[in-house]
Amino acid sequence: MPSNSPIGQTHYVAALEDTPVAAVDRLDESQKARSTWADAWDSMRRRPAFWISSALILLIVVVALFPSLFTQVAPDTCDLGNSNDGPAAGHPLGFTRQGCDVYSRIVFGTQASVTVGLLATMLVTLFGVIIGALAGFYGGWIDAFVSRIGDIFFAVPTVLGAIVLMSVLPARTPVTIAVVLSIFAWPQIARIMRGAVLSARNSDYVTASIALGVSNFKILLRHVIPNSLAPVIVIATVSLGTFIVAEATLSFLGIGLGSDVMSWGNDIGQAQTSIRTNPQVLLYPAAALSVTVLSFLMLGDVLRDALDPAARARR
Amino acid sequence: MTQLANEDLYQTVPESTRPLLEIRDLEVGFQTQHGLVPAVRGVSLTLHEGQTLAIVGESGSGKTTTAQAIINLLAGTGKVTAGEILFEGRDLTKLSAKEIQDVRGRLIGYVPQDPMSNLNPVWNIGYQVEEAIKANNVAQGKEARKRTIEVLQEAGLSDAADRLKQYPHQFSGGMRQRVLIGIGLSARPKLLIADEPTSALDVTVQRQILDHLATLTRDYGTSVLFITHDLGLAAERAEQLVVMYKGKIVESGPSKEILANPQHPYTQRLVAAAPSLASRRIQAKKNPQADAEKIYSEGSLDTGLIARASRRESAAPDRDLISVQGVTKVYRIRKGGFRSDELLAVNDVSFGVKKGTTTAIVGESGSGKSTVAKLILQLEGITSGKIEFDGQDVAGLKGAELLKFRRRVQPVFQDPYGSLDPQYNVGNTIAEPLLAHKVGTAKERQARVLELLDQVSLPSATRFRYPSELSGGQRQRIAVARALALKPDVLVLDEAVSALDVLVQGQILNLLTELQAELDLTYLFITHDLAVVRLVADNVCVMKKGQIVEAATTDEVFDNPRELYTQELLSAIPGGNFEFGR
């Protein structure tokens, strides 16, 4: 056995060149400074799912904003002579029972669906974040009151509540649908926000800020809310898809958007009359709906992986 | 066998015996996104029957990984990539999953670090111990139940039979650790690996546990492998010492010899930074500029600084800056329904702190020391009594008055991972108190941030970084810088160095001492660590169960403790009176 071997019994000292001693606790300046959001971005852009879903969402938004870029055929000039015809030149997806161009109707229907989804998500997030933050941060009777109200709305299934409300509303536009959906959907976001705020409020950095003399409201605004947003963003992204589905459901049932408004839900609803003879009329708008919802779900998934430190540690 | 160069020094080891455990050139790596990251690099060590060996090192040195590799408990993607681990001549790295299962528990016992999370909360204690006994085939059926009681009694739970049906939450930390030790020793293993077995416990409990462990292992001739960050514990409890640094062994051998005469620069540094009762108050030199660089750049408590404290009372004004008079705090604990229990957290506590001095409040967990800090910081209201700051009663201050008080009394908290907002970069964090108190223009605040970073010896580029990129010590320096931003008179340091590695701890203590001399700060130092108290405090209040049992100058308390409790606390510090080679 060589004499310098660390066998425990003899006093062994490693050669200094093998074990150079670094300065205690020196800052590693070789790495670039990065925030949690920069970290999240870094983790997201490595995921193909992020790029696929983003590209799809971008495409959907462009279609919603400028439908006429994608088709020259007017969706509302229908010729009954083409009823249930298959694909023809200039009409790649064929015709509906009314003889309208399916492709064109899908393109023009995007706007209504996406508007409902975006608007409802924004309303729900805004409402849920504010209410959840106040309830979680101030606690006490505010929390008790708001939480019970939330429970009442939570107990009513969103679509069921929307059916009841929509049937008494005079106007059935994308805006009214979004408002009605958010009335029944905000408690979910509020609950998540409340939980996140509760844990952030009890963190040491909040105590430190109180002791530094920062006012309560500023602590809520500067420390608590930014640290509680991550789960809300994830849920909001996922729920955007579900709002689009909810709109389609209501329209399918005939109490969503007015029949004069073009939307995927309306088209699916009308297609059921020809489902036996001409099923693709139903399949195309349904596929558009699925792709949209799937894109948002996928994005939500990627966001959760990027923003949730626990999920990150598991990888 | 001829491995031993000087076997004659160790008569306890018969010549014919081969080592119980021999690790040769062990390499362990963790698979990450960026490839294989080595955690243990070429570690070799030998442990004989009946011996105790301690592996010491700072966090990230690979000490726990080495221990876990022995019984193949490596976390996640960890893998032994080279070397061998011979246990009674059998290479453990080559065993199949089933074979290693047989070794675990029966031949090699393991006591994990955290007694709080290593017992399953939904099963009672008796069931969990019995499960271990059955799994190791020590006994079955009725015998197993009998053995369970025996094991727990051996581990120091005298009323074990009555406690079998109790659940972990009904046990204190010390009792849970005893249960884990009982489980670890239940099959009379030949080797017990104890990974920081007592670092979560109070010193007096720690001493009981360690004493008990020593008795058990002596009675059964069990070898023990300690993993610890505490040099004092290693000095007191282990014959053999292995010092690890960045995955390598830097020094190994008989522990007393190494600690009295460290050879490797890293060991020297570690030994120099270890606070011990034999050390003295760090005294900042009055010409700080010249020495500043040198002091900050090393973690050691510079021997030049460890000089006897000169009395500062003569320089300080007669009146106390902080005066706590008969303060009591009662918490109401809701018991369900409308019933509630009262908990007397702080009971009639009185003390004074003079300007420019450091007063330490020492106590074990639950002694009420942190509550005192919160009361002084006005984070909680007092139930009765009076707290005066600079002659003014501070209880119930509101609005502008409270803001003025906050400006002069600033806190630094224990957990450097929790006390900084992860979403805020360092510059904004330090500037926050300036902003809250509307001090200066944006430009002036920026200048102040740079000045503060310089004061805590961090490069100015640090201000763009986020807490997650900084080490614990660096974060704690940021917390100190933030606390100093408003030029306060008092810093309340609540366990401010407890979570740090010993070298980093030494560095921060040096920094605090320097700043105190430079800025004439008054410190209120809340800690459980008496060795640290000796280094920094002028006066000490010892708390027990909400009351101050002894209050005097540091030298008096340490050299001549009057209360039995203080004496117990002092004698319980592992290796407390060990004279480290400095």
From TrEMBL, chain A:
Predominant subcellular localization, coarse grouping: membrane
Manganese keyword on record: no
Keywords on record: Cell membrane, Membrane, Transmembrane, Transmembrane helix, Transport
Location(s) in or outside the cell: Cell membrane
SUPFAM superfamilies given in the database record: MetI-like
Residues in ABC transmembrane type-1 domain copies: 110-300
GO BP annotation list: transmembrane transport
Family label: Belongs to the binding-protein-dependent transport system permease family.
Protein name, as recorded: ABC transporter permease
UniProtKB/TrEMBL annotation, chain B:
Keywords: ATP-binding, Nucleotide-binding, Transport
An individual GO BP term: peptide transport
Pfam family, one: ABC_tran
Listed SUPFAM superfamilies: P-loop containing nucleoside triphosphate hydrolases
Residue ranges of every copy of the ABC transporter domain listed in the record: 23-271, 322-570
MF (Gene Ontology): ATP binding; ATP hydrolysis activity
UniProt keyword annotation of Membrane present: no
Keyword Nucleotide-binding: yes
Coiled coil segments of this chain: none
Signal peptide (residue range): none
Family affiliation: Belongs to the ABC transporter superfamily.
PANTHER family with a match to the protein in the record: TRANSPORT ATP-BINDING PROTEIN (PTHR43776)
Protein name, as recorded: ABC transporter ATP-binding protein
Organism: Cryobacterium tagatosivorans
Taxonomy of the source species: Bacteria, Bacillati, Actinomycetota, Actinomycetes, Micrococcales
